[in-house]
Amino acid sequence: MLLASIIIHAARPIRRERSAASIYHLLQGKRSAQTLQDAHMYGLTHLFGIYPKLPRQLFDQVVENILQDGQSKEPERDRLPYFKGMQYQMQTESFLHRLLLLIQLLSNDAREEKHYIPVTDSPAVQHWIKQWYRQEQHRINDWRTGIHSELASLLGRLPDFQADIFVDRLTGYQHIGLTTGQLASKYKVHETDILLYQTSTVHHLLHHTESEAAAFPHLAALMNKQEQQTSSITSTAQKTRMMLERGLTLDQIAAVRGLTENTIKDHIVEMTWLDGEKLASRFLSATDCNIILECAAKADTNKLKQIHALLEGKYDYFQIRLALALRKKQGVKA
After folding, report:
1. Local structure of 175: helix, strand or coil
2. pLDDT-above-70 percentage for the chain
3. How far apart are CA 243 and CA 253, in angstroms?
4. Of 93, 104, 159, 295, which has the maximum CB count within 10 A?
């Protein structure tokens, strides 16, 4: 089961420093300070948010099965496919549904069929496609050729098994794509695995479309550039950043926003993971940062309590978290 392999993969760098719940929140993409910190600290940003609707009961059952079976490594047939969760978490669903509905439209238009049930009932996606059609209907033949060519190229870079799952999902003229359950039955895998392979395929498409936009202009047009640019940092942390840039102190920001000072510190740590030294230097010197990191390295731990004790309380937890966030190479490979 692919989900089991992913959990084992995530548990390896975390070891005994976090509970199983931390992996659950990671896969769900919980945008809390702790989960964001874990994703960066343990080199697991690629798995962040890859299964936002993961049922807790299913997760717990898979973890229990792993423990009962004594599994310690990823099964050979379930080597992890490509994921880039943190980068594309906010794009995955909208890009997929735009693509699915566009393919349905292009297929039906080729046969001059105007009446069909949209493959997605998302008002936002349907609105986007309607706007696209008003602007691009005069080039619809170019789009049909372009989308087919670009998808054939990118899906051809995937394992046949994974590409076939994606193609079988597509709906077109007088053809209804297979449901998740039907795909699971056809390919003899768990329904959860179908969803994970689908997410992996979308991340693969997004990555190459973004990095090779000139080669894949039609797929690139389906991306939400604004959403991509603002997805890395939580909105509440962004508000804290703006107030810090205006020169407000931690206690002033906490008072204005009606939050605790610890919450404001959480925001600063979150931004430090993403932006490095820009903010952290205001609260931690380079010398102190090195002392903390040397201690963590010698003890081979990321546990705040252990590092705090080894340094005999010289540095508070906020400073230790900042130092860990500033560590450029975590020493943990995904």
Report:
1. strand
2. 91
3. 7
4. 104
Q: What is the Cα–Cα distance from 48 to 98, expressed in whole angstroms?
A: 22
Residue written as token pair 């962040």: 48
Res 89 pLDDT > 50 = yes
For the chain, how long is the longest CA-to-CA vector? 75
For the full predicted model, state whether its pTM sits above 0.85.
no
Do the beta carbons of residue 171 and residue 103 sit within 8 Å? yes
Tell me if 89 sits within 8 A of 28, measured CB to CB. Answer: no
Name 172's bridge partners: 175
Cα separation values, 192 from 51, 167, 289, Å: 9, 18, 42
* Neighbour count for residue 13 (Cβ, 10 Å): 19
Q: What is the CA radius of gyration of the chain?
A: 23
Task: Give yes or no for a contact between 241 and 267, defined as CB atoms under 8 angstroms apart.
Answer: yes
Q: How many other β-carbons are positioned within 10 Å of the β-carbon of residue 17?
A: 15
